[in-house]
Amino acid sequence: MLNKTLLLATLLFLGGCTLKENSNLAQLLTKDDIYHMSLQNTQKAQLMASFETKALLTATYLNPVYSSENCKNFCMDVEDGEYFFIGVYIRDSKSHQFNDKGYSLKLDGKKPEDIEKLDKDDPLRYEMPMVNNWSTYYKVKFPKSAKEELTLVFESDRFGKDVLKFSRKGSGLF
Fold first, then answer.
1. Are 155 and 38 in contact (CB under 8 A)?
2. Exposure string (b/e) for 75-85, b if CB count within 10 Å is 16 or more?
3. 103/158 Cα distance (integer angstroms)
4. How many other CB atoms are found less than 10 A from the CB of residue 16?
5. 54/91 Cα distance (integer angstroms)
6. From CA 56, how far away is CA 90, in angstroms rounded?
7. DSSP E strands, the chain
8. Cβ atoms within 10 A of the Cβ of 61, count?
9. Given this model, what pLDDT does residue 174 score?
10. E strands of 32-145, at which residues?
């Protein structure tokens, strides 16, 4: 009788633990569409001098990610321009701002219409890939373009430039 009671208690204990693990496991195995599409539309630019990275920029083209047909939970209006999620790390800089100290960002030769610095707890930061604590993040709006391929240029007066090409269909890191 004692053996049966002990066996039953053990089974209940283990059964209770596995139910909790199954919900976490299901969450881990569920595909995050926004993250996946963002990763496909993310590219990295580096400005280097003397084999050292002086500035690092990660850019995610938001228009394909947040188009009306892809929008489910977290939506943005991206119809009035070309939107990018930009992360900037500039070595030996406290502010990591790409629009001063000789750094510039242009899309097909045009300057941004709007640059919005994002707070550390902004929901957009949680949806995007390649986010770290060292970079400063912005939502950048450029004028609407009719081109199928967009060219984003990150440039420095001292360290040259790096060119990123984005397609409206999405073709980034993978």
1. no
2. eeebeebbbbb
3. 9
4. 9
5. 5
6. 6
7. 42-49, 52-61, 82-90, 103-107, 114-117, 136-142, 149-156, 160-167
8. 27
9. 44
10. 42-49, 52-61, 82-90, 103-107, 114-117, 136-142
Contact residues for 35 (Cβ-Cβ < 8 A; gap 6+): 127, 128, 129
- The model's pLDDT over 150-164, given as tens digits with 9 standing for 90+, comes to 999 999 999 999 999
3-state secondary structure of 33: helix
* CATH fold of the domain at 33-167: Immunoglobulin-like (2.60.40)
Domain boundaries, the chain: 1-30, 33-167
- Return the CA Rg of the chain: 22
Say if CB 60 and CB 85 are below 8 A apart. yes
Q: Token pair of 11, please?
A: 């089974």
Tokens representing 42 are: 């993310």
For residue 123, the cross-strand partners are none
Question: Model confidence over 46-64: pLDDT tens digits?
Answer: 999 889 998 999 999 998 8
Encoding tokens for residue 51?
A: 């084999």
Looking up tokens 């030769």 gives 109
Q: Work out the burial of residue 153: count CB atoms within 10 Å of its CB; fewer than 13 is exposed, 13-18 middle, 19 or more buried.
A: middle
